[in-house]
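residues and backbone:
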Amino acid sequence: MNLAYSSLACPGWTIEEAAEAAARYGYQAIEWRLADGETLEPDASPVVRRRLRQASSAYGIEIACLDSSCRVTQGTPEERAAVIEAGQRMLDMAAELGAPFLRVFGGALPTGTTRADMLAPTAQVLHTLGAYGVERGVTILLETHDAWTRSEDVLDLTRAVALPTVKVLWDAHHTYRAGETPAQSLALLGDEIAYVHLKDSRLLNGKPGAWTYCLLNEGDMPLRTICTLLKQGGYDGYLSLEWEKKWHPEIEEPEVALPQALPYLRDLWRQV
């Protein structure tokens, strides 16, 4: 079991501080989403790219994944061409960093369209990016998110792509809060899952759509069940803590969340 954390957790840290903390707390890898507190975009400078490589190497930390902001569901050919161009540039960066994965989002459905309308054009975008990823040695990860949160919809999309370099990033929080049990998600996605995001939250006043993030094992996410099913299924990829401090500044500081999560996940995986 390999533990990583997303640099979303530490918007106030430099690249070097994020890598040093990963090593100090005992994480094997880091998932780069932020660099010096800012989201990584296709135009990231050569200096930033060099620092990402050097900092990870200096502290003996693997780069688990490079996270993009690309949303592959787009309504027009021009928009699809633009996201392909951005995705290819991010794939170039991932290859330069030695990252095995590039995360993309499905995105929202354009106004006036249905998921059925967008299945083929979205699959074509992913196919183009996946084929480019073959050349770069990088696998595309489609996150369970936005209009493509339900496992059934994600599976329809990856089957339409039909490339081994397009896999699924299972954000177990998103599918669970959308109404799926972990068993339902894994029964559908199975071997399509190449990467996993974990986080915890608790419902507010028992309302299904109202919840707040909290430290692992302080909420009502079925983390033990998730880990049990993954382990029973032979999953051997990364478990990545996605502590979204960048988007939710009110949650605990990274100095609290990162060292708290690692021993909990390590012990949980050992027990299940």
Observations:
- The chain has one domain: 2-271.
